[in-house]
Request: fold
Amino acid sequence: MGQQQLMLVILGVIIVGIAIAVGILMFKANAVESSRTAIINDLGYFAMRARQFYFKPRQLGGTQHDFTGITLNMLTPLSENENGRYYIESVTPDELILVGVGKIVVHNDTIRVRMRVNEATQEVEIIN
Reply:
């Protein structure tokens, strides 16, 4: 009877250990997904602001159908917030490319999201 109880205790410890490991993995996956979603939301806000400047006439402080006059300071007062760091990767008269780099580090790499903005649409590309 003593051996059977010892085996049940060992089996219980193994099951609890596996459950803790799975819980930690699920928590990390949820944190990464939440961070990625927050960065996409921030980039979407910046895209909306960029379009406002794009359509606004120069006399009113806009860029009048030209993305090249838009800087990150026009879109947000800070290039960094609790979700990540943001910068403009490239800009042409017809397209603006924004990038967000998350603050969460996963497997020695950070979360990166790129958003291409033109006058009508925005396209999200998850780099990492």
In short: The beta strands are 84-91, 96-106, 109-117, 122-126.
